[in-house]
Backbone:
Protein backbone atom coordinates (compact mmCIF):
# COMPACT_ATOMS: atom_id res chain seq x y z
CA UNK A 1 0.00 0.00 0.00
CA UNK A 2 2.99 2.30 0.41
CA UNK A 3 3.13 2.76 -3.37
CA UNK A 4 -0.43 4.08 -3.45
CA UNK A 5 0.19 6.87 -0.95
CA UNK A 6 3.86 7.79 -1.40
CA UNK A 7 3.39 9.95 -4.56
CA UNK A 8 0.65 11.94 -2.81
CA UNK A 9 2.71 12.36 0.36
CA UNK A 10 5.76 13.52 -1.59
CA UNK A 11 3.67 16.27 -3.18
CA UNK A 12 2.61 17.47 0.28
CA UNK A 13 6.06 17.16 1.91
CA UNK A 14 8.74 16.85 -0.81
CA UNK A 15 11.66 16.74 1.63
CA UNK A 16 10.24 14.34 4.22
CA UNK A 17 10.65 10.62 4.80
CA UNK A 18 7.61 8.59 5.79
CA UNK A 19 6.98 5.77 8.25
CA UNK A 20 4.01 3.57 7.39
CA UNK A 21 2.08 1.94 10.23
CA UNK A 22 -1.41 1.75 8.74
CA UNK A 23 -3.75 3.42 9.15
CA UNK A 24 -1.28 6.01 10.46
CA UNK A 25 1.55 7.45 8.36
CA UNK A 26 4.11 9.72 10.06
CA UNK A 27 6.53 12.04 8.30
CA UNK A 28 10.05 12.85 9.44
CA UNK A 29 8.89 16.48 9.79
CA UNK A 30 6.32 15.52 12.42
CA UNK A 31 3.06 15.47 10.49
CA UNK A 32 0.67 12.54 10.74
CA UNK A 33 -1.74 11.22 8.14
CA UNK A 34 -4.66 8.78 8.15
CA UNK A 35 -4.73 6.30 5.25
CA UNK A 36 -6.88 3.36 4.21
CA UNK A 37 -7.46 1.14 1.20
CA UNK A 38 -10.69 -0.72 0.55
CA UNK A 39 -12.02 -3.51 -1.60
CA UNK A 40 -13.49 -2.90 -5.05
CA UNK A 41 -16.99 -3.26 -3.60
CA UNK A 42 -16.34 -0.34 -1.24
CA UNK A 43 -15.58 2.16 -3.98
CA UNK A 44 -18.80 4.14 -3.56
CA UNK A 45 -18.33 4.34 0.22
CA UNK A 46 -14.83 5.79 -0.19
CA UNK A 47 -16.01 8.29 -2.80
CA UNK A 48 -18.98 9.36 -0.68
CA UNK A 49 -16.86 9.93 2.41
CA UNK A 50 -14.15 11.84 0.55
CA UNK A 51 -16.58 14.06 -1.34
CA UNK A 52 -18.48 14.79 1.87
CA UNK A 53 -15.30 15.78 3.71
CA UNK A 54 -14.15 17.94 0.79
CA UNK A 55 -17.47 19.79 0.80
CA UNK A 56 -17.26 20.33 4.58
CA UNK A 57 -13.70 21.60 4.24
CA UNK A 58 -14.82 24.12 1.63
CA UNK A 59 -17.66 25.30 3.86
CA UNK A 60 -15.85 25.27 7.21
CA UNK A 61 -12.07 24.78 6.95
CA UNK A 62 -10.65 22.83 9.85
CA UNK A 63 -13.99 21.56 11.14
CA UNK A 64 -13.39 18.12 9.60
CA UNK A 65 -10.21 16.24 8.62
CA UNK A 66 -8.82 17.53 5.33
CA UNK A 67 -8.69 15.00 2.49
CA UNK A 68 -5.43 15.07 0.54
CA UNK A 69 -6.10 12.23 -1.91
CA UNK A 70 -8.85 9.71 -2.62
CA UNK A 71 -10.29 7.59 -5.39
CA UNK A 72 -11.92 9.76 -8.04
CA UNK A 73 -15.72 10.10 -8.19
CA UNK A 74 -15.40 10.35 -11.98
CA UNK A 75 -17.17 7.39 -13.62
CA UNK A 76 -14.40 7.22 -16.22
CA UNK A 77 -11.73 6.27 -13.68
CA UNK A 78 -10.70 2.60 -13.67
CA UNK A 79 -13.15 0.40 -11.78
CA UNK A 80 -10.29 -2.06 -11.16
CA UNK A 81 -8.55 0.54 -8.99
CA UNK A 82 -8.89 -0.30 -5.29
CA UNK A 83 -10.38 2.68 -3.48
CA UNK A 84 -8.00 4.62 -1.27
CA UNK A 85 -8.23 7.54 1.12
CA UNK A 86 -5.59 9.87 2.58
CA UNK A 87 -6.35 12.64 5.06
CA UNK A 88 -4.77 14.50 7.92
CA UNK A 89 -4.73 12.58 11.19
CA UNK A 90 -6.70 13.95 14.14
CA UNK A 91 -6.39 12.55 17.67
CA UNK A 92 -9.98 12.96 18.83
CA UNK A 93 -11.59 12.78 22.28
CA UNK A 94 -15.21 13.06 23.41
CA UNK A 95 -17.19 16.28 23.11
CA UNK A 96 -19.90 15.26 25.58
CA UNK A 97 -18.90 17.16 28.73
CA UNK A 98 -17.01 20.06 27.16
CA UNK A 99 -19.21 23.16 27.39
CA UNK A 100 -16.80 25.44 25.53
CA UNK A 101 -16.18 23.07 22.62
CA UNK A 102 -19.94 22.46 22.40
CA UNK A 103 -20.53 26.18 22.01
CA UNK A 104 -17.80 26.43 19.38
CA UNK A 105 -19.28 23.53 17.40
CA UNK A 106 -22.77 25.02 17.57
CA UNK A 107 -21.48 28.37 16.34
CA UNK A 108 -19.44 26.88 13.49
CA UNK A 109 -22.33 24.76 12.24
CA UNK A 110 -24.74 27.70 12.40
CA UNK A 111 -22.42 30.29 10.83
CA UNK A 112 -20.38 28.20 8.39
CA UNK A 113 -21.60 24.71 7.50
CA UNK A 114 -25.32 25.39 7.60
CA UNK A 115 -25.10 28.56 5.54
CA UNK A 116 -23.05 26.94 2.76
CA UNK A 117 -25.61 26.72 -0.03
CA UNK A 118 -26.01 24.53 -3.08
CA UNK A 119 -26.63 25.93 -6.53
CA UNK A 120 -27.94 22.55 -7.75
CA UNK A 121 -30.84 22.08 -5.36
CA UNK A 122 -31.40 19.63 -2.53
CA UNK A 123 -29.35 16.41 -2.54
CA UNK A 124 -25.76 15.50 -3.39
CA UNK A 125 -23.72 14.64 -6.48
CA UNK A 126 -22.64 11.14 -5.35
CA UNK A 127 -24.18 8.40 -3.19
CA UNK A 128 -23.19 8.47 0.47
CA UNK A 129 -23.37 5.86 3.21
CA UNK A 130 -24.35 5.56 6.87
CA UNK A 131 -22.53 2.37 7.79
CA UNK A 132 -23.45 -0.10 5.04
CA UNK A 133 -26.71 1.68 4.12
CA UNK A 134 -26.50 3.47 0.79
CA UNK A 135 -28.16 6.87 0.39
CA UNK A 136 -28.78 7.24 -3.33
CA UNK A 137 -28.94 11.07 -3.47
CA UNK A 138 -29.29 12.96 -6.76
CA UNK A 139 -30.79 16.45 -7.09
CA UNK A 140 -34.26 17.76 -6.24
CA UNK A 141 -35.87 21.17 -6.47
CA UNK A 142 -37.63 21.12 -3.08
CA UNK A 143 -36.84 19.83 0.40
CA UNK A 144 -40.20 18.05 0.47
CA UNK A 145 -39.32 16.09 -2.67
CA UNK A 146 -35.76 15.37 -1.54
CA UNK A 147 -36.73 14.03 1.87
CA UNK A 148 -39.63 12.01 0.49
CA UNK A 149 -37.36 10.36 -2.09
CA UNK A 150 -34.75 9.59 0.57
CA UNK A 151 -37.34 7.91 2.81
CA UNK A 152 -38.88 6.13 -0.19
CA UNK A 153 -35.51 4.71 -1.23
CA UNK A 154 -34.91 3.28 2.23
CA UNK A 155 -38.43 1.83 2.38
CA UNK A 156 -37.81 0.13 -0.96
CA UNK A 157 -34.66 -1.49 0.47
CA UNK A 158 -36.68 -2.80 3.41
CA UNK A 159 -39.38 -4.21 1.11
CA UNK A 160 -36.74 -5.89 -1.04
CA UNK A 161 -35.52 -7.71 2.06
CA UNK A 162 -39.04 -8.83 2.88
CA UNK A 163 -38.92 -7.37 6.38
CA UNK A 164 -40.86 -4.86 8.49
CA UNK A 165 -44.01 -4.73 6.32
CA UNK A 166 -45.92 -2.67 8.90
CA UNK A 167 -43.10 -0.14 9.06
CA UNK A 168 -43.07 0.15 5.26
CA UNK A 169 -46.84 0.72 5.18
CA UNK A 170 -46.62 3.42 7.84
CA UNK A 171 -43.65 4.95 6.08
CA UNK A 172 -45.60 5.36 2.84
CA UNK A 173 -48.43 6.98 4.79
CA UNK A 174 -45.92 9.43 6.27
CA UNK A 175 -44.65 10.20 2.77
CA UNK A 176 -48.12 10.99 1.48
CA UNK A 177 -49.46 12.82 4.56
CA UNK A 178 -46.83 14.04 7.03
CA UNK A 179 -44.01 15.13 4.73
CA UNK A 180 -46.22 17.46 2.64
CA UNK A 181 -47.87 18.87 5.78
CA UNK A 182 -44.63 19.65 7.63
CA UNK A 183 -42.11 20.35 4.88
CA UNK A 184 -44.05 21.99 2.04
CA UNK A 185 -44.67 25.30 3.90
CA UNK A 186 -40.98 25.82 4.73
CA UNK A 187 -39.18 28.69 3.03
CA UNK A 188 -35.63 27.37 3.08
CA UNK A 189 -32.57 26.98 0.86
CA UNK A 190 -30.43 23.83 0.58
CA UNK A 191 -27.43 24.00 2.92
CA UNK A 192 -24.62 21.54 3.50
CA UNK A 193 -25.24 18.90 6.17
CA UNK A 194 -22.94 16.42 7.86
CA UNK A 195 -25.73 13.90 7.35
CA UNK A 196 -24.93 11.56 10.28
CA UNK A 197 -24.27 13.97 13.12
CA UNK A 198 -24.57 11.72 16.15
CA UNK A 199 -22.19 11.91 19.11
CA UNK A 200 -19.97 9.13 17.75
CA UNK A 201 -19.06 11.32 14.78
CA UNK A 202 -18.01 14.45 16.69
CA UNK A 203 -15.24 15.16 19.17
CA UNK A 204 -12.42 17.45 20.21
CA UNK A 205 -9.04 17.63 18.49
CA UNK A 206 -6.51 16.94 21.25
CA UNK A 207 -3.89 19.13 19.61
CA UNK A 208 -5.96 22.27 19.01
CA UNK A 209 -8.78 21.82 21.54
CA UNK A 210 -11.24 22.63 18.75
CA UNK A 211 -14.36 20.62 17.87
CA UNK A 212 -14.14 18.29 14.89
CA UNK A 213 -16.71 16.30 12.92
CA UNK A 214 -15.94 13.20 10.86
CA UNK A 215 -17.47 10.14 9.08
CA UNK A 216 -20.00 12.30 7.21
CA UNK A 217 -22.80 11.22 4.88
CA UNK A 218 -23.35 14.66 3.45
CA UNK A 219 -26.07 16.18 1.34
CA UNK A 220 -27.68 19.59 0.91
CA UNK A 221 -30.91 19.84 2.87
CA UNK A 222 -32.63 21.58 5.78
CA UNK A 223 -30.27 22.46 8.64
CA UNK A 224 -32.68 20.96 11.17
CA UNK A 225 -31.92 17.47 9.84
CA UNK A 226 -28.45 17.54 11.43
CA UNK A 227 -29.88 18.82 14.72
CA UNK A 228 -32.53 16.10 14.78
CA UNK A 229 -29.91 13.36 14.49
CA UNK A 230 -27.76 15.04 17.17
CA UNK A 231 -30.63 14.64 19.63
CA UNK A 232 -31.25 10.92 19.07
CA UNK A 233 -28.53 9.36 21.21
CA UNK A 234 -27.44 12.30 23.38
CA UNK A 235 -23.76 13.13 23.85
CA UNK A 236 -24.03 16.79 22.81
CA UNK A 237 -23.78 19.37 25.62
CA UNK A 238 -26.74 21.72 25.99
CA UNK A 239 -24.39 24.57 25.10
CA UNK A 240 -24.19 23.20 21.54
CA UNK A 241 -27.90 23.71 20.86
CA UNK A 242 -28.14 27.00 22.76
CA UNK A 243 -25.24 28.60 20.90
CA UNK A 244 -26.44 27.18 17.58
CA UNK A 245 -29.87 28.81 17.86
CA UNK A 246 -28.34 32.10 19.00
CA UNK A 247 -26.86 32.32 15.50
CA UNK A 248 -29.49 30.40 13.52
CA UNK A 249 -33.03 30.55 14.92
CA UNK A 250 -35.56 27.77 14.47
CA UNK A 251 -37.25 27.75 11.08
CA UNK A 252 -40.81 29.09 10.97
CA UNK A 253 -43.33 27.83 11.82
CA UNK A 254 -41.31 27.39 15.02
CA UNK A 255 -44.25 25.74 16.81
CA UNK A 256 -43.77 22.73 14.49
CA UNK A 257 -40.05 22.42 15.29
CA UNK A 258 -40.47 19.34 17.50
CA UNK A 259 -42.76 17.61 15.02
CA UNK A 260 -40.26 18.26 12.23
CA UNK A 261 -37.49 16.89 14.45
CA UNK A 262 -39.47 13.67 14.96
CA UNK A 263 -39.98 13.40 11.20
CA UNK A 264 -36.30 14.06 10.47
CA UNK A 265 -35.22 11.48 13.05
CA UNK A 266 -37.05 8.86 10.99
CA UNK A 267 -34.29 8.88 8.36
CA UNK A 268 -31.45 7.56 10.55
CA UNK A 269 -33.85 5.06 12.13
CA UNK A 270 -34.74 3.70 8.69
CA UNK A 271 -31.04 3.55 7.86
CA UNK A 272 -30.55 1.34 10.91
CA UNK A 273 -33.18 -1.11 9.64
CA UNK A 274 -31.06 -4.14 10.50
CA UNK A 275 -32.00 -3.66 14.15
CA UNK A 276 -35.52 -4.59 15.25
CA UNK A 277 -35.23 -2.12 18.17
CA UNK A 278 -34.59 0.76 15.73
CA UNK A 279 -37.47 -0.47 13.58
CA UNK A 280 -39.72 -0.39 16.63
CA UNK A 281 -38.63 3.17 17.42
CA UNK A 282 -39.29 4.24 13.83
CA UNK A 283 -42.74 2.62 13.90
CA UNK A 284 -43.70 4.46 17.09
CA UNK A 285 -42.56 7.77 15.61
CA UNK A 286 -44.51 7.14 12.42
CA UNK A 287 -47.67 6.38 14.38
CA UNK A 288 -47.28 9.52 16.48
CA UNK A 289 -46.66 11.72 13.45
CA UNK A 290 -49.64 10.37 11.58
CA UNK A 291 -51.82 11.13 14.60
CA UNK A 292 -50.42 14.66 14.98
CA UNK A 293 -50.78 15.79 11.35
CA UNK A 294 -54.21 16.39 9.82
Residues:
Amino acid sequence: MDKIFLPHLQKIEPHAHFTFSFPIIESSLGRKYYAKVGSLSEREQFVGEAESLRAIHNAAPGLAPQVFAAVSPDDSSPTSERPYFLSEYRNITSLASNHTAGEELGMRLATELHVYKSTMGFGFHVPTFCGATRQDNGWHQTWEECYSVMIGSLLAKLRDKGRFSELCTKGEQVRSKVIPFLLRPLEIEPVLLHGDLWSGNVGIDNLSGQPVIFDPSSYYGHNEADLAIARIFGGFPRSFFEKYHEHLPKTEPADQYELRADLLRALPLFKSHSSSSYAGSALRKMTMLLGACP
